[in-house]
Write a structure and sequence with these properties.
The chain is of the alpha/beta class. The chain has a single domain, classed as 2-enoyl-CoA Hydratase, Chain A, domain 1. The chain contains 13 helices and ten strands. The chain has a six-stranded mixed beta sheet, with helices on both faces. Helix 1 links the parallel strand 2 and strand 3.
Amino acid sequence: MTERYQGYDYLSFDWPLERVLRITIDNPQTLNSLNAQGHRELAYVWREVEDDKNVSAVILTGAGKAFSAGGDFSLVEGLAQDHSMRLRLWKETRDLVYNVINCGKPIVSAMNGVAVGAGLAAALLADVSIAGRGIKIVDGHTRLGVAAGDHSVMVWPLLCGLAKARYHLLLCEPMTGEEAERIGLVSLAVPDDQVMDKALEVAKRLTEGAPSAVRFTKYALNNWLRQFGAAYDTSTALEFFGFSGDEVREGLASHREKRPPRFNPECDL
């Protein structure tokens, strides 16, 4: 392991194949939820990967029974209470999305268990996304009381169409990996116990390809995502604006108390 990957608390690294770096979201006690530090690590590790000449392909996965359960309660509570933290995380969230998009190395995501939040953002922005057929994928922003930001307004309509994106993002409707493949949200769905094997197969094939041709193709394809940067920036700004309001407080309370949220139906918009 090179020194550049030392000092991470919530990501672990190994080399399962030659020139394949595996990044594991590693907080299994809480289903790989992300606190402020974990969120920051996931946002900026891609700059290290970009500069690492030993890496030809990356696999992103989660430790234990889950890919990632999204931001933890301490992170959400901090965003609701601290304006400076909102500013910092707003920038980090934008950087996470654009760092994944702009990383020249091809990325394969291997989704297991449940995939939510910032982890889901990185997984769906990966060049090849592989999900277990029985996993749970959900974008839970509106259930929490904030606009769907992170990545979804940019990438979901491109992957699965506007009608499906509206349905799942407005209602926070979960789906299985099998359904995600059917509607085009992920590249492949395989039996749950074969996710990593398939990810390793795909990563190996990527390392055997012509490196400049693969990276140029990734760069050109991701111009589809860059074209939707304005929509993404708007959605993320509105998401973080929402963290200053009452709806997110009710959304957080309902999660903690394991009950449906009771939002005020009146709205000045």
